[in-house]
Amino acid sequence: MKFVKNIAVALCVTAGLASAANAAGAGKHPKQVEWKFNGVFGDFDYQSAQRGFQIYKEVCSACHSLKYFRFRNLDKLGYNEDQIKAIAAEYEVDGDIDDAGDETVRAALPQDAFPSPFRNDNAAASANGGAIPPDLSLMVKARHDGANYVYSLLTGYEDESAAPEGINVSAGKYYNPYFKGSVISMAPPLSEGIVEYAEGNPEANLDQMSKDLVNFLMYTAEPNLHDRHKMGVMVIIFLSVLTILLYFSMKKIWRPVKEGKNFYEDAE
């Protein structure tokens, strides 16, 4: 009876903690999507990531930077050197201080990172209702279950009338149950017709665009994932072969001992 009572108490405590988390505005558990880049043999869907880059350029880059991702890293997405130079040249970054001591700007180069669209945090906050748009370079890695979280956030906007009691969606804010607190300053970034994919690509609907953008953001967070997985497989194969060789070597060395013989005398 005491054991059953302890279980009941534990369940009550767990339920209480869950209720407290919900009351505190913990985000809804993300939708679960199968991603090609998951798993030991995972790799990127490069065509999807290219479409995601298009979305970033045409939509996300108006507010979000990629300060840890350099233009030259686009090479593994299938862009050649000239294309990367052309893409970089579309952006401006800080240049050298001139002879008068003033700051200058210049066209970005392949070795530069994607710049922020705002000069500083104050400018970013002023343009976004007091909220500073986060850098997206490592967003997928920075959040728990990051790929599914970002996908759920992009597809999870609901009308404010769907917000449960106790959640107040003020003017200029939006209801998204997957966001911590459920009230987010960012307007729904993706909608039908906001981008147009080239002929031969899937339809640019909300679900497809969200998956494409997640694939690109996963690439920005870990552009060497393919090489790392390939190296990991090679290391596992090497260690497996080494283990087999060591096992049979050990059997050969210790066999005379088990038979009561001196190994070295037996070898002679």
Verbal overview:
With 268 residues, the protein is mostly helical. Among the domains are: 43-65 and 116-223, Orthogonal Bundle (Cytochrome Bc1 Complex, Chain D, domain 2); 226-267, no CATH class. Helix content is 44%, strand content 6%. It contains nine helices and six strands; from the N terminus they run H-H-E-H-E-E-E-H-H-H-E-E-H-H-H. The strands form three sheets. The chain has a two-stranded antiparallel sheet. A hairpin with a 7-residue loop joins strand 5 (174-175) and strand 6 (183-184).
Give a brief description.
With 268 residues, this protein is mainly alpha-helical. It contains nine helices and six strands. It has a two-stranded antiparallel ribbon with strand order 1-4.
Quote the average pLDDT: 84
- Largest sheet, spatial ordering of strands: 1-4
Share of helix, binned: 40-55%
SSE ordering: HHEHEEEHHHEEHHH
CATH class of the domain at 43-65 and 116-223: Mainly Alpha
Count of DSSP strands: 6
Structural class per helix/strand content? Answer: mainly alpha
Question: What is the rounded Rg?
Answer: 27 Å
Strand content: 5-15%
Number of helices: 9
- Second CATH tier, the architecture of the domain at 43-65 and 116-223: Orthogonal Bundle
Can you tell me the CATH superfamily of the domain at 43-65 and 116-223? Cytochrome c-like domain
Low-confidence stretches: 1-24
- List the quaternary state of the chains: single chain
Q: Largest sheet at a glance? A: 2 strands, antiparallel
Label this structure with key terms:
6 strands, mainly alpha, 268 residues, 44% helix, two-stranded antiparallel sheet, single chain, disordered N terminus, 9 helices, Cytochrome Bc1 Complex, Chain D, domain 2
